[in-house]
Every structure is written in structure tokens, then in C-alpha cells.
């Protein structure tokens, strides 16, 4: 791909999505999904740890597990999902047009995305920050040492904007090399086309973990932004948006209450009132959303609680080995806090 050296001023507006009117409300998404018998879930074209097909073509990752949990909650079967791989450029259009039912594609929540594109931002399911990957032999330890560097960045992302903001505020000379797709950006960086690569720090860790020679690369400890990632749904369908939101809160509540994939059935029969409400033993909570009262029991049995999802895909049990950090529970120093089920 030809290198594109853009001025920082041009870079600043590249990732903003043009304002669009909210689409007219048609059939409720829940009814559509039930009638279809399958959830259409928008995911990335390949981010290790979040959504990426394995050697057998099976999608795996944190976002993938959220899709499976949603299918289990709504349809009673975590396998009834069609994963739709989307680029940064077409992800929001796919949701606006109804091609997908929900977007779970490590997408940053921002003011403009909330106010301008007719979509609803759900709860944050991963707190991240924009970072930089470099070659170890470059001996770069701090972002300031990237002054004058060529930096690979994906088109149509908040990373373009933030990179331009950083260049202006820090008075750094940055030469961005723009790529339409993250996978081609990775290939270019690992082939030596750029001095550094910028993206969410978690995505960089995933890319490095599957690089030709992972030990040759590192992700700098510094980040330059807040990147709260989470699901998007269409405006005007409160029932569906509530289901997506409360699914997340339920996964957090389950971790806090000690409800796991292995013990969820047993916990549903126990005496813990929080677990009883969460798992459908009391309270009719599922029915209030138009679902079976065992909706969260089905979701947790399929993928586990939030902690299980995190550890399996991006935490200590994964190649990424990311610390919980801000993604820990609120009572363990993190920001994950569930609105109570009561």
C-alpha cells in the first residue's frame, strides 16, 4: 500500500462519522431475532482476544462471548449466532441498515457517536487506552521518542483523531501511514513499513501475540487516550437496548456473586437472593424484558461470568495475559460495577 503522509490538521477529522438521521422504527429487534431464530452480531474482521476466527473458522474472543451470551439469553442457544465481520468504515452503517442486530466490535464510545449517528451506546465492557507498538531493537521506551517517526494507523477509527491531537499538543512531527483495514496495517508494521503502530493497547497486545516473532515487539506502557469499548444498538428500540445493557450488568453481577458457568444451576436453587433474582428463581426479571426468566442462567451457563470471559480471552489464561486493571470489579480496584438486580 502506498504511504500516505498526511498533515496532522487533516488527520483530526478523518475518524468522525457524518451525522445521520435515525432510521424509522420498524419491527422490534427482539421480535425479528426470535422470528429469524438467529442473532446477527457485528464483530471485527480479526482482533485476537476480542473476535477472531481460529484455524477451524470458529470465532473466539471477548466480543464473541458477548454475542454468544446474548443469543443464549434471547434464544436459549449460544450457537444461534451469525458473526458478521465488519471494518471500521462499515460497522455503524451495518447496524443502522439492519444488517446486524447488535455491534460488538471493540468500538470506542464517544460524544459524537452517541449524539450524531442514530445509535445507542451500551455499558462499557472493556476499558482501554490508545497505545503504541514498536520493535524492541528500536530502543524506544517512551512516546516522546517517537518524534519524527512513521506510524501505522487504521482508517475510520478514533485512533486517527487521537494521533493528530497528540501530534499537535505535544508538538511532535508524526508521519501517519493510513490503512483501510487493521490486518493490512499489522502486515505492514511487522514487515517494517512503519516505525510504530497505534491502536487500542489491548488490540496491539493481541496483534503482537500472533506476530511472526512476538519477542521482537513490545507495547509501550504509556497510553494517550481513554477508549471505553462497548456494544451499540439502534436508537428507538428501548427493549432491545435494555436487554443488551442488562446482559452486561448480569455478567458483572454474576462474578460479584460467585456465579459461574459451572455452578449456575446449583446457585439458582440456593438461598442467595441476589443469585435467585439474577438466575430467574424469583422476581420475574426476564419477563419484564420480554424474555424467559432463565435468560441470565442460560447466558452464564454458556460463557461464564465477566471474570471468566475476561480471563479466558484476554487475561491470565490467554496469550495476551492482560491484567484486570480498570476492568476489575469495583470492590477490587476496578470500574466494573453492575446496577443491582432488584
Automatic annotation (TrEMBL):
Q: Which InterPro entries match?
A: Bact_solute-bind_prot3, Solute-binding_3/MltF_N
CDD domains registered for this protein in UniProt: PBP2_BztA (cd13692)
Q: Name one Pfam family in it.
A: SBP_bac_3
Q: Which residues form the Solute-binding protein family 3/N-terminal domain?
A: 38-267
Give UniProt keywords alphabetically: Signal, Transport
Annotated signal sequence range = 1-27
Asked whether the UniProt record includes Signal among its keywords, one would answer: yes
List GO BP terms, alphabetically: amino acid transport
Q: State the family it belongs to.
A: Belongs to the bacterial solute-binding protein 3 family.
What protein name does the entry list? Amino acid ABC transporter substrate-binding protein
Can you name the source organism?
Roseicella aquatilis
